[in-house]
Amino acid sequence: MGVFSLYIINRAGSLLFCQDYMQIPILSGNERLNLAGLLHGLSTIAGNLSPAEDQSGIHEIETSGFRLEMFQPVTGMQFVAVCDVKQGSLQHFLRSCHRLYADYVLKDPFYNVDMLIRCDKFTTNVQAAVDALNNKA
Prior knowledge:
Elements: E1 3-9, E2 15-20, H1 29-49, E3 60-62, E4 67-71, E5 78-83, H2 91-105, H3 120-136
Antiparallel strand pairs: 1-2, 1-5, 3-4, 4-5
Helix pairs in contact: 2-3
């Protein structure tokens, strides 16, 4: 039980960060890019079709083998966690990943917006958050 993977997708649908935290079937680089584009497109379409005022798109997709949970702040970025179906809500975890992104990635003087995320402090702190969540479960 726990978080299997974390994906961060920019507002254009490009994959900026992906990390696996458990042994799962490995996706190739191309498959990960396709997944990011598909999730972004589906979420955008769902947001446009939604009659509700909160038009942020898809929040959760559940299958028999895993659950995918998304958080989309007002910036349009998408934080996506793939987890076990028995795992509780990951909204708090995804919000904390967004905070870590703001604290470590956006404040990095060498980082340009929409570049791939290569920030060791961000990766280390996300790993600690995943470990804490997986150990709690």
